[in-house]
Structures are given as structure tokens and as C-alpha cells.
From TrEMBL:
InterPro entries noted in UniProt: C-type_lectin-like, C-type_lectin-like/link_sf, C-type_lectin/snaclec_domain, C-type_lectin_CS, CTDL_fold
Sorted UniProt keywords: Disulfide bond, Signal
Gene3D superfamilies for this protein: Mannose-Binding Protein A, subunit A
SUPFAM superfamilies, alphabetized: C-type lectin-like
Span of the signal peptide: 1-17
UniProt xrefs under Pfam families: Lectin_C
Tree of life domain: Eukaryota
Organism in which the protein naturally occurs: Prymnesium polylepis
Residue span(s) of domain C-type lectin: 83-170, 202-325
The keyword Protein biosynthesis appears for this protein: no
Keyword Flavoprotein: no
Name of the molecule in the record: C-type lectin domain-containing protein
């Protein structure tokens, strides 16, 4: 028996190490990097790396898009800078760079709109100089008096004055500001599997039809009514199923434009996870855009998208804006 226990101890796999660029962190054997008492997703370390394919694709999306918007989660902040960077990358953007006074003012406006007292921006100390996470040139700063004041504080937060303060990268929680690409108004995309099956065309392309009910008639509708309204459009139309960062940001930009809080998407909770309404397939981790701390199981089984593009599980009998996916 002693020999068997010894054998089991020897065969337990070692905790995976985070990449070298995630300095000071290690994976705990599950999905988190640990540095003292501050947990950070291991995937955040991967996204922060220069060789990360996810980070590269996000940057390519930002560079190719004609317009940008700044956004911040409406209700929750990130645990630390690494988690904030991970969320921005997943949404198809980067922590915001500030290259002039106008951009600083634009970021401050977003911050004040969400009533934040401090938010993370995309600056990082590299030796004795400062750089932007997205590679933008460092040609502007707005440090508060006496800042930066520590060689051990390598990240940056913005205050409600618009001034900056250096902070430790693993401190928090605080809100964060992302710079995201917004697709053009005529944006189309490959239809979701449910629509493809309905129209019998694997190459079908779709567009989003967002109901003005929420901001014109001041009458929001429940999830099941939203689903039925989309189906009533015919030709295989269904409740929107944003499965990419680009689709997510297109819908989120409409919410921001109209000052609406959230909209329903075609995703619901069942016994062992969340499932897409159109084809009944189970949601995979690489398709999800959950806000930090979500899903938390309360209070319901439907899913709403907030105006920053992240998702929240919500009771189905609450009124939201309707977004439908319709084949062209």
C-alpha cells in the first residue's frame, strides 16, 4: 500500500508553468496563475505574450477596422491588469492607449459615464520607459503631480480628474477601458448553424436586425417573445447568436449608440451548461464572452449582452432589446 501511494504521488502531473512573460506568476494546476493572494487566468498570460495567436488576431482586427470606440464594463471591473487585458483581447480589442489629449478626454468621458473612480489603461513600464500594450507610440502623458512615484509600480490607472497614477499590475479590483474596433454599418457575417440548416445553404451570410422597440416605444420584451419575433421574420431568421468578437462588437456598438443597457441573445441555460437556441449545440469556452464573475447562476436561465459586449445570465421575464439574425 505504501508503494502504491508513492507511485500515485509520482504520477501526479506537475502544475503547468505560465510563459516567461507572465513574470512572477505560476499556474496552480487548474486555470489560474497565483502571485500571493491575487489570482489571474492562465489564459491571460498567454494572451499577453508576444507570440500569442489570440493577441495577434485581436490586434489585426483593430488595425483593419475603420472606426474605434472606447468601452468599459457597465457593472463590474477586472481583478487586476492581467485579467483586464484578457477581457479586452477576447472582445477584439486592447486596453486603451492614450496618444493625445483628445483621446484622454474621450476615455475620461466613458469612465465618468459609468461612475468609475479609477480605471486601468493600457500603459506598461518597460525598464525605465513606458510603452502602450497595443504598440502605439508613447508621445503623450498626463501624470498627476508626483507621479509616477515607484519603480515597483509598472501599470497605470486613470483618475476622475483625467490624471494618471502608476500602480502595481496585480492590484485591484478596478474598472478598465478597452479600445475596440467597430464593424461598418453594412456588416455581414457567415450565418449561424441554425440559420444555415434552415435555408439549406452552407455559404449563407446574415445581417443583424435590431428592434427599435427598446428605445422608440419604450417597451422592452421578454426572452421568449424576442425569440418568437425573430422567427416571425421568416426565411430562417432567429435570435442573434454572436459567436465572434466582431459580431459581438457590432451589436454592442448599437446599444452604445442608443444608450440602451442590454439585449437578448439566443443562448439559454439547461441542465449541464449553456446552449445555442438555433442548433441546440453547447456553448464552448472559446465562443463565450462572459463578463467577469459571470455566469453566476442568479437569477435566471437566459443570457443578455451588455453594452461593452460581455454577457450576463439573467431571468428570462425581464424586458430587453431584441436582436435578430437574418439571412441576406
Amino acid at each position: 500500500r505504501i508503494h502504491m501511494l508513492a507511485l500515485l504521488a509520482l504520477t501526479v502531473p506537475a502544475a503547468p508553468a505560465c510563459p516567461t512573460w507572465c513574470t512572477g506568476f505560476k499556474c496552480d494546476g487548474s486555470a489560474w496563475c497565483i502571485d500571493g493572494t491575487v489570482p489571474t487566468p492562465c489564459s491571460a498570460c498567454k494572451l499577453l505574450g508576444k507570440t500569442s495567436s489570440s493577441s495577434a488576431s485581436s490586434k489585426a482586427l483593430v488595425e483593419s477596422a475603420p472606426t474605434y470606440e472606447y468601452t468599459s464594463p457597465p457593472y463590474v471591473g477586472a481583478g487586476n491588469v492581467f485579467e483586464a487585458q484578457y477581457q479586452c483581447n477576447k472582445l477584439g480589442g486592447q486596453l486603451a492607449a492614450v496618444t493625445d489629449a483628445a483621446e484622454n478626454k474621450a476615455l475620461l468621458d466613458v469612465m465618468l459615464r459609468y461612475k468609475r473612480d479609477r480605471t486601468t489603461i493600457g500603459a506598461r513600464r518597460d525598464g525605465k520607459s513606458w510603452t502602450w500594450e497595443d504598440g502605439s507610440p508613447w508621445k503623450y502623458d498626463n501624470w498627476a503631480v508626483g507621479q509616477p512615484d515607484s519603480d515597483n509600480e509598472n501599470c497605470v490607472e486613470m483618475w476622475t480628474t483625467g490624471e494618471w497614477n502608476d500602480v502595481t499590475c496585480d492590484s485591484g479590483p478596478r474598472a478598465y477601458l478597452c479600445r475596440v474596433a467597430v464593424p461598418p454599418k453594412d456588416f455581414t457575417f457567415p450565418c449561424s448553424p441554425g440559420v444555415v440548416a434552415a435555408v439549406g445553404n452552407a455559404d449563407a451570410r446574415c445581417r443583424y436586425v435590431v428592434s427599435a422597440t427598446g428605445w422608440d416605444e419604450k417597451k422592452d420584451i421578454y426572452w421568449d417573445v424576442a425569440r418568437d419575433r425573430c422567427k416571425a421574420l421568416g426565411h430562417g431568421a432567429q435570435l442573434a447568436e454572436p459567436r465572434t468578437a466582431e459580431q459581438t462588437q457590432f451589436l454592442a456598438s448599437i446599444l452604445r449608440k442608443h444608450g440602451a443597457e442590454s439585449l437578448w441573445i439566443g443562448l439559454t441555460k439547461r441542465w449541464d451548461g449553456f446552449f445555442w437556441e438555433g442548433d441546440g449545440s453547447k456553448l464552448s469556452d472559446d465562443q463565450s464572452f462572459w463578463s467577469i464573475t459571470e455566469p453566476n447562476g442568479e437569477p435566471g436561465d437566459c443570457v443578455e449582452m451588455w453594452e461593452d459586449g460581455t454577457w450576463n445570465d439573467r431571468a428570462c421575464n425581464i424586458g430587453k432589446v431584441v436582436a435578430c439574425e437574418q439571412p441576406i
